[in-house]
């Protein structure tokens, strides 16, 4: 009964959030561009499978800041705070008790490789957002990694249904080098928008630049516009 109430509340909050951002989301380039650049069959959100300037790789290269933090599950915590009604701090068990989804999506790195059809398991960003209830003033989020990394993303991008916080990839627990125990993925944006070793999601009432964005990477990061650097 209590679990059902909780689920109902999440669903209600999620529907509210969704309706707030539906129009903005539908207008984002990866859903709305009529001349997207790339090649291959059309993917599920209507874009050519391989974005302009990308090469498909079967390998999964590793990109980091030269340091791969080790976070034991019993020490792991995720804070979701900022411009929200109900900030939370989740322990691993709390996170794993949230609705888990499986999804398969593509991973496009700004350094020109793309890894297609990666099977993921995790929690939708949208569901996590519904839990904390972003204030009307919230427009963006900053995601922080345990390694000091940060990256900013608009809510109309973050709330897309393929944006997940994942703990499993290719049927295996996410390895430390790829951001385990938990990372974010942003299949409709370049992959630097997904923080590895994620520890905090801060809702913002305006845009702010993350680690690479401060160093000349694009704010928006649209793969089908070759939108790499600003
Ligand atoms: N915490 C953290 N997240 C990060 C990075 C990082 O250095 N630290 N690098 C970003 C970049 S530039 C890319 S392309 C992807 C790479 O993910 P991968 O190493 O699993 O391929 O993670 C992104 N997320
Ligand atoms: Mo990257």
UniProtKB/TrEMBL annotation:
CDD domains: arch_bact_SO_family_Moco. Residues 69-212 form the Oxidoreductase molybdopterin-binding domain. InterPro entries: OxRdtase_Mopterin-bd_dom (IPR000572), OxRdtase_Mopterin-bd_sf (IPR036374). Residues 22-50 are annotated as: Disordered. Transmembrane segments: none annotated. Pfam families: Oxidored_molyb (PF00174). This is Oxidoreductase. It comes from Arsenicibacter rosenii.
């Amino acid at each position: 009964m209590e679990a059902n109430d909780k689920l109902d509340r999440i669903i209600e909050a999620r529907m509210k959030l969704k309706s707030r951002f539906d129009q903005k989301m539908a207008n984002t380039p990866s859903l709305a561009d009529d001349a997207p650049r790339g090649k291959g069959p059309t993917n599920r959100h209507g874009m050519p499978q391989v974005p302009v300037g990308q090469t498909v790789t079967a390998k999964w290269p590793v990109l980091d800041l030269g340091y791969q933090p080790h976070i034991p599950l019993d020490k792991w915590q995720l804070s979701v705070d900022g411009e929200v009604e109900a900030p939370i701090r989740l322990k691993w068990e709390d996170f794993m008790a949230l609705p888990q989804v499986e999804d398969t999506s593509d991973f496009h790195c700004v350094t020109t490789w793309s890894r297609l059809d990666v099977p993921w398991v995790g929690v939708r960003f949208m569901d996590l957002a519904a839990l904390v209830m972003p204030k009307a003033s919230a427009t963006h989020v900053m995601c922080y990694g345990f390694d000091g990394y940060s990256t900013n993303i608009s809510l109309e991008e973050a709330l897309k249904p393929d944006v997940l916080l994942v703990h499993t990839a290719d049927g295996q627990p996410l390895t430390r080098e790829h951001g385990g125990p938990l990372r974010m993925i942003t299949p409709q944006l370049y992959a630097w928008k997904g923080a590895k070793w994620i520890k905090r999601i801060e809702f913002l009432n305006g845009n702010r630049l993350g680690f690479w964005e401060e160093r000349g990477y694009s704010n928006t990061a649209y793969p089908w516009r070759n939108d790499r650097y600003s």
